[in-house]
């Protein structure tokens, strides 16, 4: 799949759209036909083994080894201005397409990440916007420290327990009588 056209701030010329997915070329790749029809790398690579060995646009015979990546075109598209994928949710970031990935991993407040307690079993996806609320009220795997006796509480686990086990803790909590 390519990059959705509505992500770009300026209107994208039809010449930069993939003939398979109709989105903006992602990993622009020549099929190897004489007309130089160009597709997303993923689109044409999954087309050739599953749908036959002809260029989708002109039916000329092409093979996996006739494919040719156009990095220069990727660099041009990489410089175009895009909106964040979470613009609809409220993110107002705009920048070059090449910088979008690092915006999403490093500073988008709306990008979903696994909860920081995923390694313990939490399956919830959170954004920087919802993380605090989730940890405070919604995460079953966040550790709590006994509000009665703190870490020195005589209960099981010495006063540190998972939020979802709090009622269990209170039944054994030494200071919670
Ligand atoms: Zn495509
Ligand atoms: Zn072609
Ligand atoms: Zn964003
Ligand atoms: Zn969680
Ligand atoms: Zn306790």
TrEMBL record:
<feature type="zinc finger region" description="TRAF-type">
    <location>
        <begin position="82"/>
        <end position="131"/>
    </location>
</feature>
<keyword id="KW-0863">Zinc-finger</keyword>
<feature type="domain" description="TRAF-type">
    <location>
        <begin position="82"/>
        <end position="131"/>
    </location>
</feature>
<dbReference type="Pfam" id="PF00097">
    <property type="entry name" value="zf-C3HC4"/>
</dbReference>
<dbReference type="InterPro" id="IPR001841">
    <property type="entry name" value="Znf_RING"/>
</dbReference>
<dbReference type="InterPro" id="IPR018957">
    <property type="entry name" value="Znf_C3HC4_RING-type"/>
</dbReference>
<dbReference type="InterPro" id="IPR013083">
    <property type="entry name" value="Znf_RING/FYVE/PHD"/>
</dbReference>
<dbReference type="InterPro" id="IPR001293">
    <property type="entry name" value="Znf_TRAF"/>
</dbReference>
<feature type="domain" description="RING-type">
    <location>
        <begin position="18"/>
        <end position="59"/>
    </location>
</feature>
<dbReference type="GO" id="GO:0043122">
    <property type="term" value="P:regulation of canonical NF-kappaB signal transduction"/>
</dbReference>
<keyword id="KW-0479">Metal-binding</keyword>
<keyword id="KW-0862">Zinc</keyword>
<dbReference type="GO" id="GO:0008270">
    <property type="term" value="F:zinc ion binding"/>
</dbReference>
<protein>
    <recommendedName>
        <fullName>RING-type domain-containing protein</fullName>
    </recommendedName>
</protein>
